[in-house]
Amino acid sequence: MVIHAAQGLKTKKTKKSMKRSLSKADRLRIVGSVEAGVTYVSLALEYGVDKSTVKRIWDRYVARGSADRGSGSGRPRKTSPQDDRFINLQVQRNRYITVKDILENPCLEGLSASTIGRRIADAGKFQSFWACAKPFLRKANVRKRFKWAKDHLSWTKEQ
After folding, report:
1. 39 is in which domain, residue-wise?
2. CATH number of the domain residue 52 falls in
3. Which residue from 30, 71, 126, 157 has the least number of CB within 10 angstroms?
4. Is residue 13 a contact partner of residue 51, using CB atoms and an 8 Å limit?
């Protein structure tokens, strides 16, 4: 049990009760409060986070001039948000467009088909599917097939 003299409060400090993510607005309020002279401990109690979290937010603000989170350590995306919108717009305009057709656009040069498919799936609006019907035969192909069938009508198993 931890006793905070400033508030005269007794709180049981556990890992579960202290775990909380802060929004950008909360982080900015913490920075403003620290600038106004409010203690780390009282801010930690108010926002339900640890004192070290409040101090880390303040230190980040002093070092960078911003209370924003840093960029993640993952692999950077190949597409920009504008590219993602363009890909999804292509699918909206033509539900039967293929990934290869989308890739023919010069602004998407250097992307793989799996990346395009992933961006379409990430949008969550579209589901992929296999085309149900094959395209109709051209008249020339119908004539060729009919001629082949007539020619082979009298064949036996040995031929």
Report:
1. 2-64
2. 1.10.10
3. 157
4. no
